[in-house]
Amino acid sequence: MDSRKLRVGVIGVGALGRHHTRFYKESKNAELIGIFDANEEAVKNISKEHSVKIFHTIDELADECDGLSIAVPATLHHKIALPLLQKKKHLLIEKPLAATVQQAGELAALAEENNVVLEVGHTERYNPVMSFIEKKVKDIRFIEAKRLAPYPPPRPGLHPRGTEVGVVMDLMIHDIELILHLIESKVEKVEAAGMSVLSQSEDMANARITFKNGCVADITASRISEIPMRKMQIFQAESYITLDYQDKTGFVFSKSATGIVKETVPVIDHNALQEELENFIRNALKAIETKKVPELKVSGKSGLEALRLAIKITEEINRHNRHYNFSQAATITENYY
């Protein structure tokens, strides 16, 4: 075995985990040890497709790995990740980090205590447009983000994918994490509204967040849209930026002596999830070599802060619905604490 390769495993081979499996298998920097999933049919299919070993318990898989991806429903993240962090395994956990702030805080603290990599799968941070945009943002005054998707298809015996949580935790949290990263200011006020349509929690939501530096973010998320959309507009003192994460395009409009100058965001295209996994591999290998966790793009602490704000938004949706006696209200937030 090449000692320069990270020995990895995948827990959960559903909609996202199957792609984790494929990209680890293709990586020159990782050795895919095996996969685990409670769904026997799914794990057999992925095992056959990628010629990878099936493990019948998480412990058996973890004992042969340096790092693991966790791609199971958010409600199971804490239960699965906690013993793995206690074993000092490096982890990449799909977003959200956990189902509650308390659980997420425990995971982030344990990773720091045990000096292991804990990254959260906020894949949008690896979108090709982001590296250029991060150099262009300064003195942000207003952000508008829209993330729309069709309702996920039914799954026999299971919730449709992602609907074990509301749309804030399912989709909006991507933009929440991005905005917290770009603005770097404390939240002053949150206003929000939302409603359930097809699931037991909110399927559409809008949040208006005011930060202590004066910046305002208006975020809309829906999983009942006929047409998918992932867009953001960033307004600054003398420029504004438009981003389309779905099409991987962007433009910067800047004030000049003669008017407005339009600049196209240069994009060196890549698969965001693949880049995220390669980054996790590099960080875990570096941590193993140096005995020190390097700076992480989306650390456990970053995932915790995104979760904290997502839960605050959900709480405000519930408060709004109760106040106006709306019959279709979001899931009670006591489940998140």
Provide structural commentary.
The protein is α/β, with parallel strands linked by helices and 337 residues long. The protein has 2 domains: 6-124 and 271-299, NAD(P)-binding Rossmann-like Domain (Rossmann fold); 125-270 and 307-336, Dihydrodipicolinate Reductase, domain 2, CATH 3.30.360. 35% of the residues lie in helices and 26% in strands. The chain contains 9 helices and 13 strands. It has helices at 17-26, 40-50, 58-63, 77-86, 101-113, 130-136, 167-183, 272-290, 300-323, and strands at residues 6-11, 30-36, 67-70, 90-94, 118-121, 140-148, 187-195, 204-211, 216-222, 229-236, 239-244, 249-256, 259-264. Strands 7-8-9-6-10-11-12-13 form an 8-stranded mixed beta sheet. A 5-stranded parallel beta sheet has the order 2-1-3-4-5, sandwiched between helices. Helix 1 (17-26) crosses helix 8 (272-290) and helix 7 (167-183) crosses helix 9. It is globular, with a radius of gyration of 20 Å. The protein starts with 5 loop residues before the first strand and ends in a 14-residue tail after the last helix. The relative contact order is 0.16. The model is unreliable at 329-337 (pLDDT under 50).
